[in-house]
Specification:
Layout: H1 7-27, H2 31-56, H3 62-92
Helix pairs in contact: 1-2, 2-3
Length: 105
């Protein structure tokens, strides 16, 4: 690892990111901030993939490949979610979760 930064330190940051994302997902009422919270959780998981790969199997690249795959999936998920949020905003003139109770086309 980097000088002075160990696995434990990185896992603490990753755990904090994960629980901040969970908290934001459960508490926030705005769809954009909920999407950002989900992305924070996914990034925390990617950090764990890379750290455990570096610590357990330093010669292999599975953790890095899983992270790259997860980043690609997260980008596609964000694009679809933003498209849905834009359509909700056009229909309901707001993006509060409380106002979105039915799926209409």
């Amino acid at each position: 690892m980097i000088e002075g930064i160990g696995v434990f330190d990185i896992l603490v940051v990753s755990t904090a990111m994960f629980f901040i994302g969970i908290y934001g997902f459960l508490v926030r009422k705005n769809l954009i901030t909920i999407l950002m919270s989900v992305e924070l959780v996914l990034n925390a998981v990617n950090i764990n993939f890379v750290v455990f790969n570096k610590y357990l199997y330093p010669d292999l690249l599975q953790g890095y490949m899983f992270s790259l795959f997860a980043i690609g999936i997260a980008a596609a998920e964000a694009a679809v979610a933003i498209a849905i949020i834009l359509n909700v905003y056009r229909q309901m003139k707001g993006i509060d979760v409380e106002h979105v109770d039915t799926m209409k086309y």
